[in-house]
Design a protein that fits this description.
Order of helices and strands: EEEEEEEHEEEEEEEEEEEHEEE
GO molecular function, one term: transmembrane-ephrin receptor activity
CATH topology of the largest domain: Jelly Rolls
CATH class of the largest domain: Mainly Beta
EC number: 2.7.10.1
Number of helices: 2
Number of strands: 21
Organism: Muraenolepis orangiensis (Patagonian moray cod)
Strand content: 35-45%
CATH superfamily of the largest domain: Galactose-binding domain-like
Strand order of the largest sheet: 1-2-10-5-8
Structural class: mainly beta
Subcellular location: Membrane
GO biological process, one term: axon guidance
Radius of gyration: 33 Å
Number of domains: 3
Length: 272
């Protein structure tokens, strides 16, 4: 495998790892990633973007050219030494990868990129980290990118309760039950629950919290209810106009209230 930078049809650089030993039989060429920290994952997903040459577009290689390559992985608790002896037997096979679209000599001349994207599930992963390895057995491949990720249900707020980041179970058919915690100034009416699905989505909300006395639900938080005396600040005199400004109102109020009271003498009002 060789690290090569090429230009696509829009003259943008593409950094790739390539191999193309299609003239000789019994190829066994390996490319290995660096050590990848597992974090909280129980299984990971590997997204591969690559191009692969159509063997029919290459003359005299009918018996030696291949159109697939293999993906492997190896788990370890620590990174391997810088120059270890590579032992294929230490790696577990994930899958054989084939292209949906292969490119030809004509595509090369036109600089057309027939890019394939394949995603494979890897796991269970139980040790601190792992390596990925790619085995070429005689194909003409350019590996453009490798993306490794895992799914999780992100922290969220529902029904006045907060729920933490949660990693789905290894068994994709089962859900993880997660108990929520009521937000500040809220209390349980029924225990709040959500279920974390295999694709990282929250499902089946159950239970709820309610705001305590003298608080109300405002955009998912419990805010203090203000009395009129708290809401209206001290008056400010503007000539003969007294302006009551809502100094005590906070950002929870959707609009500003202003009351203007004209100061009058008692005799301005008729007496009965």
């Amino acid at each position: 495998w060789d690290a090569i930078t090429e230009m696509d049809e829009e003259n943008r650089p593409i950094h790739t790892f390539q191999v193309c030993h299609v003239m000789e039989p019994n190829q066994n060429n390996w490319l290995r990633s660096g050590w990848i920290l597992r974090q909280d994952a129980q299984k990971v997903y590997v997204e591969l973007r690559f191009t692969l040459r159509d063997c029919n577009s290459i003359p005299w290689v009918a018996g030696t050219c291949k159109e697939t390559f293999n993906l492997f992985y190896r788990q370890t608790d620590d990174p391997l030494p810088a120059t270890p002896r590579f032992r294929p037997a230490d790696y577990a096979k994930v899958d054989t990868i084939a292209a949906d679209e292969s490119f030809t000599q004509t595509d090369l001349g036109d600089r057309v990129l027939r890019l394939n994207t394949e995603v494979r599930e890897v796991g269970p992963v139980t040790r601190k980290g792992f390596y990925l390895a790619f085995q070429d057995v005689g194909a003409c491949i350019a590996l453009v990118s490798v993306k490794v990720f895992y799914k999780r249900c992100p922290s969220t707020h529902r029904n006045l309760a907060s729920f933490p980041d949660t990693v789905p179970r290894l068994d994709s058919s089962s859900l993880v039950e997660v108990l929520g915690s009521c937000v500040q100034h809220a209390e349980e009416r029924d225990p709040p629950k959500l279920y974390c699905g295999a694709d990282g989505d929250w499902l089946v909300p159950l239970g709820r919290c309610v705001c305590t006395t003298a608080h109300e639900d405002v955009d998912g938080d419990c805010r203090v209810l203000l009395s009129v005396n708290q809401a209206l600040g001290p008056p400010e005199r503007e000539g003969d106009v007294m302006v009551l400004t809502p100094a005590g109102l906070n950002s929870m109020c959707p609009r500003t209230l202003e009351l203007k009271l004209r100061l009058t003498d008692d005799e301005d009002f008729p007496h009965i």
